[in-house]
């Protein structure tokens, strides 16, 4: 909204300084500041309100150190994160941008699902919360919405490169030649194209079209590639959303990890929406994705601001209201900038937490069927609880997971050039 106000003032009244709102970098910086202010200042009021309403977390007795002290800690703090993401985005982003609309819808959609789950746990006193099938149904619904929008919406396009700067050698004399670089801006086709292309990491010609998966069935079947694309979108959103939900088990872990991933997403959005960087990095130029930097900045600020209260010892838990939304945001964002195949690296913490649960459950069922007694690989799952059982303090676990998350983030960015 501020973007439109200052654009009007700049265009029709030549208001001093109003033109700065045309720059994504400025609006991204403002988004971080606004989200930090909202999460840190207004977060305290929300926590007080949650305490008055007795919105406390019920902690199961898992035999973990420091577990009893967390009993009654306010939950549903994800409302702080969602507010700190949505409000700065509404104020500073171009609201007619299809990618911004999609991210806002995804944030609210999964936030509502998580809120219902927390509400049932806290106020209805049902420990299991919202039935799993309804959670999955909501995630599948969002996946269908995101997949169909990204494929059928006319504003979701890419531009093919027609010209790239090249190095030419010019003859200066009969006895010498000087290599000179002719600096030119890359030229992209004026025509936009609908495409199901995505980025494959570590390969030189790193674009893959989902339509090719079924193109062999008939001559004109590539246009039906969305039948493959949409189920993949559903799977990614469901997996990452649940991965973030599982990771949210100790103070600050999911919040800090999401902030780190948010930085990577901001980089991807910026380079994908900029012709110069897209050409230099030899990646797809996706018009209008640069605006997502503003949203990613709000996400980073919201997570960092929430850490003010969520770092050990936590004064508030985000609950499913925050964790489901954060995972979904990351998944939809990665798909929008066509970097979804990098999710296993970028969201490696979420992945390993998810896998630890799957491995533990599968092995327990297998050994119970074979030996009549269930056995475990980990002392407890998800993985962070395994280290707690080993006697490691949760603040040390979180710090080490963050370090691993930073390493994975760097590796993810490096894939832009490492092929």
Write a structural description.
- The chain is mainly alpha-helical and about 425 residues long.
- It has one domain.
- The protein has 15 helices and 6 strands.
- Strands 1-4 form a two-stranded antiparallel sheet. Strands 2-3 form a two-stranded antiparallel sheet.
- Helix 3 (about 80-90) packs across helix 11 (about 320-335), helix 7 (about 225-245) packs antiparallel against helix 11 (about 320-335) and helix 8 (about 255-270) runs parallel beside helix 11.
- Residues about 165-185 have low confidence and may be disordered.
Short description:
With 419 residues, the chain is mainly alpha-helical. It is built from 15 helices and six strands.
Characteristics:
419 residues, mainly alpha, two-stranded antiparallel sheet, 15 helices, 6 strands, 59% helix
Average the pLDDT over all residues and give the rounded result. Answer: 87
Shape: globular
| Rg (CA only) | 24 Å
The order of strands across the largest sheet is 1-4
In angstroms, what separates the terminal alpha carbons?
41 Å
Count of the separate structural domains: 1
Strand content: 5-15%
